[in-house]
């Protein structure tokens, strides 16, 4: 299962008549399968829009939506990379067994 979360928001304290206007979002995506996990972390910058949501009304779901909109097709690339990483942890393509003479 892939989970997207928000680690931190950076805001402009005042922008025009608005307060705490989000300008940078720190995000994390995590893929878990059994005991195996992989994650990605990044930031996106966002511009103030006319469709402004006051800071106190923000939810993680809203902000994750902004991140995914901003990332566009990269969302699928991040998710595929995490799934590949976990698959390779489960069934490694290369192993390092102990030397037979050790």
Summary keywords:
102 residues, alpha+beta, three-stranded antiparallel beta sheet, elongated, 2 helices, single chain, 3 strands
Molecular structure report:
The protein has one domain (2-90). 28% of the residues lie in helices and 39% in strands. The chain has 102 residues and is of the alpha+beta class. The model has no long low-confidence stretch (mean pLDDT 95). The protein has helices at residues 60-71, 74-90, and strands spanning 2-15, 18-33, 36-45.
What can be said about this structure in brief?
By secondary structure, the chain is α+β, with helices and mostly antiparallel strands. It is built from two helices and three strands; from the N terminus they run E-E-E-H-H.
List the helices and strands and how they pair.
Blueprint: E1 2-15, E2 18-33, E3 36-45, H1 60-71, H2 74-90
Antiparallel strand pairs: 1-2, 2-3
Distance between the termini: 40 Å
Domain module tally? 1
The ordered H/E elements are: EEEHH
Total helical elements: 2
Can you summarize the main beta sheet?
A: 3 strands, antiparallel
For the secondary structure, the number of strands is: 3
**Rg over CA atoms:** 19 Å
Q: Which consecutive residue ranges, at least 5 long each, have pLDDT under 50?
A: none
Question: How would you write the strand order of the largest sheet?
Answer: 1-2-3
Give me the secondary-structure category.
alpha+beta
- Sum up the overall morphology in one term: elongated
Mean of the pLDDT scores?
95
Strand content: 35-45%
